[in-house]
């Protein structure tokens, strides 16, 4: 049996499947866990690959360790989305972290990850972690001056995640952060989601004093090249703090940190257009 994700109307990713381990319909989406020959167990939401046990470490390390190495003393962290628990696992590697709040709209995703992806979800039971099954957009609008770092580990911009890519949401995120806080969001592929990257970068760049985009290779995501956008009230990821680096990580290094911000020309041009649009709105 083969599984194919239709990543665009002209592009698909096909994987040979050994077995369907789980399939159910939650209140929000269809959830499946497939055992694939190439990447092992894989979480799929509404027909779109979310994570696999073989390549998840790249995504989860890059969305977590880049902000953790940028902020010199992050203790209180909010994760919106990320029900598989991979970001929480990476954050819990830091002994200085005192609290991690995971806000996931779909509790069935969390339970599926606990059952079928234990190597990813294992830190959800860490005593520093609070799992809240609620709408991340509403949650962000209800808190102020509370978090050192907020990580937006969202699905694709459709369905319940669509609002996580809007300007109003990022203004709420700004208010939810402490005076020196920062946010990192996954912002899709520069090859197939250029307009989304342009829009979100423009939003974050207009709200935060510091804004940078960085890249990482994620084999199972559309095009294989993925972007993350950071908005910071104070700290720059180009001058990261020389703080604690956990053991056991498999992709992130200080050199990778710097190189991920060295952008190819076509991505630089994409961001320059976003900056020009921002200046035109002032």
Structural description of this entry:
The protein has 282 residues and is of the alpha/beta class. The protein folds into two domains: 2-52, Spermidine synthase, tetramerisation domain (Spermidine Synthase, Chain: A, domain 2, Roll), CATH 2.30.140.10; 56-281, Rossmann fold (3-Layer(aba) Sandwich), CATH 3.40.50. It has helices spanning 56-70, 86-91, 107-116, 118-121, 136-141, 167-176, 194-207, 254-259, 265-281; strands spanning 2-8, 11-25, 30-36, 40-45, 48-52, 76-81, 99-104, 129-133, 147-153, 177-186, 210-217, 225-232. The strands form two sheets. The chain has a seven-stranded mixed β-sheet with strand order 8-7-6-9-10-12-11. Helix 6 crosses helix 7 and helix 7 packs across helix 9.
At the fourth CATH level, what is the homologous superfamily of the largest domain?
Answer: Vaccinia Virus protein VP39
CATH architecture of the largest domain: 3-Layer(aba) Sandwich
SS-based structural class? alpha/beta
CATH class of the largest domain: Alpha Beta
Shape: globular
Our Rg estimate from Cα atoms comes to 18 Å
Mean pLDDT: 93
Short synopsis of the structure:
The protein is α/β, with parallel strands linked by helices and 282 residues long. It has helices at residues 56-70, 86-91, 107-116, 118-121, 136-141, 167-176, 194-207, 254-259, 265-281, and strands at residues 2-8, 11-25, 30-36, 40-45, 48-52, 76-81, 99-104, 129-133, 147-153, 177-186, 210-217, 225-232. The chain is 31% helix and 32% strand.
